Amino acid sequence: MTEQRVGWSFLRSKRWIGYFALFVIFAIACVYLGNWQFDRRAQARAEIDRIDNNYDAAPVPLAEALPDTDDFNIDEHKWLTVTLTGSYDEGLVLARNRPGPSGVGADIIVPFRTSEGRVFFVDRGWMLASGTEIDRALAAAPAAPEGQVDVVVRLRASEPEVDGRSSAGRTVASINIAEIAEVSGVTDAYYSGAYGMLVSETPSAEHGVLPPKPERDEGPHLSYALQWYVFIIIAAIGVAYAARQEFKNLNAGSDEVLAMEQKERQRKKRRGPSDADVEDALLDA
């Protein structure tokens, strides 16, 4: 019998070139998704660093932290504790559709006029208010203390506007400082880059629910990233195994295939019978 010898030339066929192209596309997609998860992890770790560096730092005066009204650097300023002295103005605004401890509600935003004459917006906490209740919430929102007040806040960045959702009356869709200034009627100089989450005020007054300290959690992004690279390895092993099996089928009886089969038998012998082999033997018996 004439020995059929194809070798590995079948790998140059259109079918196998298609397999390789699919593998490359799959690998590129996995690398993209893995790197995306690495970026998500880097962002989470950067947020943890901001919390560690700023959240419990000693308070500094607002004018020292933000010399210019449009200043805000996320790494330097987010969660930084600052102090203000001045008085609350009229012009309370509710930032609607904010999640809270008991459902969807609104954050209470009040303009605060500092002793330097600039306006800074203070988030005095969350209150339950949604849908048709928003008008009643405006009337029921806790009033800020009158007269001179010393306030401690943690800095947060002004939020972007929400597409397709605009202000309605004295409510806004996001804590966008420029929009809140317009809704609350503030015309004087105001801090446009940041607002403050209330920590405490003296004299104190009733306020909304204040948020807890954010968790220091980087999430499962590292394991997800590694998982995508493992998928590439599994796919490569699958392609290599399929190519090896086709090689054996196309070159059955050749010296190279016989040598491959001999090595496999020796490997199995050294390894001992598998669970499947034992089970088959029991069934045969």
From TrEMBL:
Alphabetical UniProt keywords: Cell membrane, Membrane, Transmembrane, Transmembrane helix
Residue spans of biased composition, Acidic residues class: 276-285
Record's keyword annotation contains Cell membrane: yes
Region (Disordered): 261-285
Pfam families: SURF1
Stretches that traverse the bilayer: 16-35, 222-243
Family to which this protein belongs: Belongs to the SURF1 family.
Protein name (Swiss-Prot/TrEMBL): SURF1-like protein
Annotated organism of origin: Leucobacter albus
Taxonomic path: Bacteria, Bacillati, Actinomycetota, Actinomycetes, Micrococcales
